[in-house]
């Protein structure tokens, strides 16, 4: 690493000067550079909650708004003014916008990270964890880590955890290390801010998640990232032409029309079966049919020609194949994948996978010289390399986040649970 490179080690908002001061350090020197920055938060765009009207009534402190596809961004000159506006919105609507501290907002907006390397002109480089001393450390970073490994492995472990957490989550390494769920919370917060999304006004919990079987839990984790949120999954560029199209989300329901008389649908879906049974006459006929065929759930029917019925997509497909129903041209409750634009949650998975790739590439590059020199014995030597260790921890942590995000999103209450997403995941899981 060139001695003239710098590491981004601290970020500090100066409300009185309306700047963000960024500290860049290397072995010999420290540079503090101020940047102009105005903090902001995002409000959902809705027709029912009059956020825009409320903002119009505020004359002090001054604010600016920008309309985005899914949100209205509210910008103030200082952090304290922004907090006042957030409080005002909360008093009038009971909605509290997600507030991210200005230092993190700045880094997310700049796409910079703690411990990223910068050249002598303070232009960002695609490298991290340079061998410079950190504020508060006497030795350079790698010497400190190597020394700690010898004398106090616990401290070495904690320092590495802090640095990787700070680099990946955009939080200062001097803060108390975050527990796994807090890390996941921060990841979601960062992702939504980066993509100009507000937390939904009404969150929706999973009503049945506690009763799911192991297989259902696994299935929920699989569909979690591939499920649209409110406003997604209905693009006009990819409207499916048939109800068998592979792009249709498996939690969708579709409207169908009956084309025979006296049709019964042997649904496996408890929710559908119970709802239909409670709301329709001919209860004895259905119960008799259930007994006759030994069905675990009460069937839907009897249905007659031209009657319309809404069904979960996979059950509708079975009936259409058998010629009892035909799909109606009504896509109100159908959601599909866009070929051009991934869903918000898919983007998060992609971003994390890209991070894994970045660290793996670094790991491979750093391992190569050890392999050449020590051949089969390379792992022992490579394991002593502090830089290699940091990248390997970053890979491990990011992989752990991808694996745990669905669980966090489903089983822990959090401000990003969105009604459309919850309903679709739940329906996909409860199909059988
Ligand atoms: Zn599309």
Give me the secondary-structure topology.
Layout: E1 6-14, E2 19-25, E3 30-36, E4 40-44, H1 51-56, E5 64-67, E6 71-75, H2 79-93, H3 102-110, E7 116-118, E8 124-128, H4 141-151, H5 153-169, H6 180-194, H7 214-224, E9 253-258, E10 263-265, H8 270-279, H9 283-293, E11 300-303, E12 308-312, H10 313-322, E13 325-327, H11 344-374, H12 378-382, H13 386-411, H14 419-429
Antiparallel strand pairs: 1-2, 1-7, 2-3, 4-6, 5-6, 7-8, 9-12, 9-13, 10-11
Helix pairs in contact: 4-5, 5-13, 6-13, 7-13, 7-14, 11-13
Bound molecules: zinc ion.
Main attributes of the structure:
432 residues; alpha+beta; DNA Polymerase, Chain A, domain 1; five-stranded antiparallel sheet; three-stranded antiparallel sheet; 13 strands; 44% helix; 15% strand; binds zinc ion
* Poorly predicted segments: none
Q: What portion of residues is helical?
A: 40-55%
CATH architectural arrangement of the largest domain: 2-Layer Sandwich
Structural class designation: alpha+beta
By DSSP (H or I, 4+ residues per run), the number of helices equals 14
**How many beta-strand elements?**
13
Main pleated-sheet profile: 5 strands, antiparallel
What is the CATH topology descriptor of the largest domain? DNA Polymerase, Chain A, domain 1
Named once each, the bound ligands are: zinc ion
Strand order of the largest sheet: 3-2-1-7-8
Query: Which radius of gyration do the C-alpha atoms yield?
Result: 27 Å
What oligomeric state do these chains adopt? single chain
Measured between the Cα atoms of the first and last residue, the distance is 57 Å
